[in-house]
Specification:
This protein is mainly α. It contains 2 helices and no strands.
Length: 88
């Protein structure tokens, strides 16, 4: 699961290089997480929630894999037909 919080951190100065900006942003994020640690919830899954949605997630994953496989097979068939029809 993802952390559940709204990140509202502002940077007052705009450095020229991206590396400095990343460092400032990372520092501001760390300060925010430390300051509002009571509002940040990491991996707050209960056992009941996880098992209740497990079957749905598995079904959704299966459907995604089947759709992906169908697309791959359709593309493969298209390439084969194209190569055969070029000969005639």
């Amino acid at each position: 699961m993802q952390a559940n919080f709204n990140l509202q951190v502002g940077i007052t100065e705009r450095p020229q290089k991206g590396a400095k900006r990343k460092g400032i942003s990372a520092e501001n994020i760390a300060v925010y997480l430390i300051s509002f640690s009571d509002k940040v919830h990491y991996h707050q899954n209960t056992a009941g929630q996880d098992s209740a949605f497990r079957e749905g997630r598995q079904h959704y994953t299966y459907i995604r894999i089947m759709v992906k496989q169908k697309v791959q097979l359709t593309n493969q068939l298209g390439k084969l037909l194209y190569s055969i029809l070029l000969k005639y």
